[in-house]
Amino acid sequence: MTVTEEPIRDYPFEPFRGELPQELLKMVHTKPVSRVRIPDGRVVWLVVGYPEASLVLSDPRFARRNAELVPDAQPQGCPVQDAGAAPEPPADAEQCPAGQRQLSMDGKPHHDLRRLAARAFTARRIEAYRPRVQAITDELIDALMAAGPPGDLVSGLVVPLPVIVTCELLSIPVADRDQIADWANDIMALTAHGQAAAAKADAELRAYLLRRLTARRNEQGEDLLGSWLSTQAGSDLSDAEIVGLAIAVLIGGREISSTSAGIRALFQHPTALRRLREDPSLLPAAVEEILRYTSVSPMFLVQTVTEDIELGGHQLRAGDGVMAVPWAANRHDAAFAEPDRFDLDRPQNNPHLTFGFGPHFCLGAALGRLQVEIAIGTLLRRMPGLAPVTPLQDLPWRDERINCGLAEFPVTW
Ligand code: HEM
Fold first, then answer.
1. Is the residue at 2 inside a domain?
2. Which protein residue has the closest C-alpha to ligand 1 atom 31?
3. Is residue 224 a part of any domain in this protein?
4. From 63-67, 166-170, 303-307, 342-346, the region with the lowest mean pLDDT
5. Strand, helix or coil at 194?
6. Is the confidence at residue 190, as pLDDT, over 70?
7. Integer Cα distance of 89 and 92 in angstroms
8. Is 254 in the pocket of ligand 1 (CB under 6 A)?
9. 356 lines ligand 1 (CB under 6 A)
10. Which end of the chain offers a freer environment for a tag, N or C, measured as fewer CB atoms within 10 Å?
11. Contact between 105 and 94 (Cβ < 8 Å)
């Protein structure tokens, strides 16, 4: 260590309760790159500036290969192919043969697999799913309204909606959904017995999906498995890769915490809430601003530097770990005027990093947006008196799981 270097701080700076600390928001402009020690003991580069975070998320010199999850390391809706017990990618992922590719790889294997996977995620297919997402949302809100007020938005809507949506997209029979949710929970759990439970759940889920895939070959269907099976006919996409993609969707698309974080932000900004209630056409812009403004965790994926590179005035070495935090970068005035203001009138192209940036940009972004939009829009329409039951600063956040998010959100209406 040279004399000019500062002591390495522990990160996160404080327990996460829905807001990034003021100190971190200041660092976005004053210290976009710094050294911190994360909860698992590793010392990594913390990247919070917008240009720097965009580079880390998109440049091949910051690899996802060897990217490891640390407590709270991924946002909701994030890929977890590299979590739990998924088989380790080969040391040199560039050499990975077709048949064993995963979205968590880098370079050509990722690019090729992603191109095949994306054929199932056309904007038209996702938009066609809108009435189904609306119907599922309505059923869940019916049940909340029948049992309350009060009611818990998290267990009543935020958790079940994406589980049902992703299971339907993969044509998973209703009777198997609880089992799927249990496996997904085990894969994402951060408990002492977590590693073994995650490995077991991953193996069982893979075996289950392989059986489903075999059964699906004889059925017609417009679901994701059907689409990937058609893709397979003219490509080198393997069964194991399709199963991996299905797991990525089941876990990546699993819990959309932006819905609860968004309702919380609207309660904090009553003028915006009133405008949105009066004019639902503001909803798409409100969703983008919610995605930009709210944070669901102080942590993100830890990537690995593949060659020496300078970033934000620091010399990073090959092998160093780097954690770019999209929600912090979303508060940079290089990309957003008055970045700490929750503003429904931002220009249409809201270039937030909440879905990532570059080659790994969220594959399910359109479906994620659709669910946040329908869930929030329907809550506001059907519950005109929607209000929190407890002070917002007392709401419990999760820290026992890889992705944070509100643990409970009691509301009345
Ligand atoms: C509001 C909801 C969502 C948010 C905020 C979100 C966020 C993200 C982020 C930040 C990444 C990039 C991670 C990286 O840089 O490696 C990502 C990737 C991914 N997401 Fe999402 N996501 C959401 C919803 C969904 C949904 C609904 C699905 C599935 C239907 C999904 C599936 C995926 C997949 C498969 C990837 C991996 C893409 C790749 O590595 O090429 N996500 N997501």
1. no
2. 364
3. yes
4. 63-67
5. helix
6. no
7. 8
8. no
9. yes
10. N
11. no
Calculate how far, in angstroms, residue 358's C-alpha sits from the geometric centre of ligand 1.
12
Please count the residues of the chain.
413
CA distance 374 to 30: 38
Domain count, the chain: 1
d(CA 86, CA 69): 12
Q: Which residues contact 278 (CB under 8 A, 6 or more apart)?
A: none
pLDDT at residue 411 greater than cutoff 90 = yes
Tokens standing for 128?
């066609």
Does ligand 1 have an atom closer than 6 angstroms to the CB of 352? no
Q: What percent of the chain has pLDDT over 90?
A: 67
Tell me the residue range of the domain where 185 lies.
9-412
Q: Mean pLDDT across the stretch 382-402?
A: 87
Rounded to whole angstroms, the Cα distance separating 268 from 307 reads 44
SS3 state of residue 310: strand
Q: What is the CA(354)–ligand 1 centre distance, in A? A: 9
Q: What is the whole-number distance in angstroms between the Cα of residue 364 and the centre of ligand 1? A: 6
Q: Which residues contact 5 (CB under 8 A, 6 or more apart)?
A: 35
CATH number, domain containing residue 56 = 1.10.630.10
**256 CB within 6 A, ligand 1:** yes
Q: Is residue 3 part of a domain?
A: no
Closest residue by CA, ligand 1 atom 6: 77
Alpha carbon distances (Å) from 16 to 97, 294, 394? 41, 12, 12
Quickly state the pLDDT bin for 4 (edges 50, 70, 90). low
165 contacts 367 by C-beta, under 8 angstroms: yes
Give distance in angstroms: CA of 390 to centre of ligand 1. 31
Instruction: Kindly state the DSSP code that residue 172 receives in the 8-state scheme.
Output: -
Average model confidence (pLDDT) for the chain?
87
DSSP state of 59: -
CA 162 to centroid of ligand 1, rounded, Å: 13
Measured between alpha carbons, how far is 372 from 374 in angstroms, rounded to an integer? 6
pLDDT tens string 238-262: 999 999 999 999 988 876 889 999 9
Cβ of 249 closer than 6 Å to ligand 1, yes or no, is yes
Pocket probe for ligand 1: among 113, 362, 369, the residue whose CB has the most ligand atoms within 8 Å is: 362
Q: Would residue 144 count as lying in a domain?
A: yes
Do residues 106 and 63 make contact, with C-beta atoms less than 8 angstroms apart?
Answer: yes
CA–chain centroid gap for 343, Å, is 22
Q: Is 240 exposed, middle or buried (0-12, 13-18, 19+ CB in 10 A)?
A: middle
